[in-house]
Amino acid sequence: MTVRVVVWGENVHEQKNKVVAGIYPKTMHGTIAETLNAAGGVSATTATLQEPEHGLTAERLAETDVLIWWGHAAHGDVSDAVTERVAEAVWSGMGIIFLHSAHFSKPFKRLMGTPCNLSWREAGERERLWVTSRNHPIAAGLPDHFELENEEMYGEPFGVPEPLETVFISWFQGGEVFRSGLTYKRGAGNVFYFRPGHETYPTYHDANVQKVIHNAVLWANNAQPRIAKVTEAPNAPVETALEPITERGPKLHEAGEEGYR
Amino acid sequence: MTVRVVVWGENVHEQKNKVVAGIYPKTMHGTIAETLNAAGGVSATTATLQEPEHGLTAERLAETDVLIWWGHAAHGDVSDAVTERVAEAVWSGMGIIFLHSAHFSKPFKRLMGTPCNLSWREAGERERLWVTSRNHPIAAGLPDHFELENEEMYGEPFGVPEPLETVFISWFQGGEVFRSGLTYKRGAGNVFYFRPGHETYPTYHDANVQKVIHNAVLWANNAQPRIAKVTEAPNAPVETALEPITERGPKLHEAGEEGYR
Amino acid sequence: MTVRVVVWGENVHEQKNKVVAGIYPKTMHGTIAETLNAAGGVSATTATLQEPEHGLTAERLAETDVLIWWGHAAHGDVSDAVTERVAEAVWSGMGIIFLHSAHFSKPFKRLMGTPCNLSWREAGERERLWVTSRNHPIAAGLPDHFELENEEMYGEPFGVPEPLETVFISWFQGGEVFRSGLTYKRGAGNVFYFRPGHETYPTYHDANVQKVIHNAVLWANNAQPRIAKVTEAPNAPVETALEPITERGPKLHEAGEEGYR
Amino acid sequence: MTVRVVVWGENVHEQKNKVVAGIYPKTMHGTIAETLNAAGGVSATTATLQEPEHGLTAERLAETDVLIWWGHAAHGDVSDAVTERVAEAVWSGMGIIFLHSAHFSKPFKRLMGTPCNLSWREAGERERLWVTSRNHPIAAGLPDHFELENEEMYGEPFGVPEPLETVFISWFQGGEVFRSGLTYKRGAGNVFYFRPGHETYPTYHDANVQKVIHNAVLWANNAQPRIAKVTEAPNAPVETALEPITERGPKLHEAGEEGYR
């Protein structure tokens, strides 16, 4: 079963910034999709901010097993409607992976319920990622640590809820640490945040980073059919209660009425 | 140190529905505040939907240690601005307790990042709450289980993230179960969801329910000063890095520039 | 990749008790292994208390992807050496599933670090299991609830640590509730506790129960190679530190010395 | 209500090693107890390995709200009986704080159910602890990071279960990271692991470290009465079931019989 992946890219700095365009002549999302397809077991395509509905129509999300999100300069341009649609797809079972500056993207903040802030420094310093959960599927085939010689620093405290599992923690040359790989579940959807990937460095050309993203796609994929009507709050009528009961006391609702929302 | 509590009530059915007005002649929020004040260690006041800014101005939230939220018929009438203000107060350290139908309130959904849905039945059936975390501060002084002879049923699956701790699970006469007491943390704020409290039954006159709410207030209170600028993402300049580093590689940002949001 | 499963059975009541022998003429472990093999993707064999080293030699565990454990009357007869060997296999990546009365087995208590106690009643009452984590891989293909007409009751509080995820909660006819499906991780090993399976009832002939166990085997399997020397605490010499450092201050340990344990 | 603390010290290197004796002329446990008493709200005494029953009789544990544990060279000399007694006290509500090399102590391994291993280097390098959970009670009054100029390095992966909360993460000069402050709950007992404290450095004279330990004592204290018979698995007789049920089907147990353990 091939995992159907959409790599969503903001696609701004690749078009406007010569440094970024030079490092990623095929764009960042294009590069990530290409390496995923090369890694196998995955069929990855791309979508961008500039497309109608940002390339994320209801039809497309229904056929997406795992969505990867990279954004930075244009978080505010993502529509609230698409944000909510993405969140609903996650709740109903779509996996999602947020990369680097996507910590401030609308879908990530929507799913976390927290500020998602951090401290940062753009100095091209050394980052070293340590695996904190040995043999976690997302760390499969990796050494116990690996380095990125030039990266932007992200520092704690990271304004997110306590994760399900902490998979990576980063050491930075300038003295900070950061929880770089965190798993969450929101509804039936698996969520992974992965820190590296500042656009002025060749991070997504790094073999270890590529392996993490490929592993995370396989981990995030939920093979089961998507949950229908995932936000519904169904009434369970007295007449069909699993154990026989008799209605008692005063009521607000008429039979068959929907609940308040 | 007295814990400053605001009990927020939607205040709709107390005014419009004779049954509810009969059970709660002092309103639901008024009743809860009164019993908290009688229990000691707490200074509880009330706020309602109908007041300007729903009674929750920035000034008032700054002086609130723990906010209690009950709403049902008018979730949609709560303004997005007040919802966001409440969320920020929680992140910065205010405790919050959501009661019963507040599972569908805007602040709860905002903080959870999930649908927060469930199944339900209004039949006045018996509910029995079991303590699943022995000696949890929220269960202090309670027996290992207690009953509410007439309650609305809420059934699993409950559309919330995996909690920090499950404190209560309910058994329902009609055959369902529900995780009735769940703790979360969002930023520096302690969050507790407590299931019982349908407005057509005298639940908030029950001594065990009152004890849970009083315990939860003491548990949710964070004695430390509120965090300022809780959503800020500060830049850490190269010049003042904790370990001496030299800037390397290309950059997006000018010195002193704010990050993208 | 076929998942290699060993179903461990205490094998006491099947030999001594006519009722149990009548329900499980092929033994409980034999029945579970047979249904797993029939479900596909799995190669299941059995091991019992009475075999040398309880059938769980180091060699056998090394070739076991997932171990299933059922015990009840003879927990105390399991050797401490085998218990520790099983725990080490789990830490290094073997999955493990504990069924019913195995809540009091030595390996479960060893891995949990808690009393693992509960309340109980043997009255053949109705149990209804509710799925609390929609589309969890362990609940794949199940309805949102299912019933076992005759089961032993287990009641909360269940003396275990807060789980990674709660997958099932049981409703009992006599008024109790129980967290019936709980996931944990211990080292690289996935752990699942599943409540049903009292030996005087035909629980392991139930299609839904069989599906849960099969799903749990697939979920617990960790495809990666087992971690070698999983309890080792390696010294990281100054000479090969990842960042150049100079040794400073007084020392307890000579170079190359092992740490205290 | 004064919190009654016992600081347990192995008391070996203070007696045998001149460096350690020079830094801690009042012993390590004596120093920690002294600073706790000076901080207020606490009544701290000490106990050591060499005393009968290691100074931890059942009577003494019954009167201890929070136990602090430091050991290193003589983990193996701690009796299994005292280890189990400590674990039971924790389950029944006693708080416990494990310091530094106590990661390999018998009580910590007993409560975690995992190897509790790590990598290490004794080179007097710089450690910087970052607060990852803002305004956590254990971090009250601390800056967002603090440094220890000379410490032993502990590196990930740390062989412990996923914690309830991660409060501190350490950066090390030599390039490693470590989850330095972790909370757990075992039964009714709050558990905190805090990394710093190698005996050849003056760590427990550091004001920030002292503040963390004092905060952790207040956090770990559970004001409720200790749970009696915390490992018991009571039978719930059919006759007194909360909902009327009739016994059905075959049975293993006679009425009033104890369950198997």
Automatic annotation (TrEMBL), chains A, B, C, D:
Gene3D superfamilies: 3.40.50.880
Domain of life, per lineage: Bacteria
Protein name per its UniProtKB record: Trehalose utilization protein ThuA
Residue ranges annotated for the ThuA-like domain, each copy included: 4-220
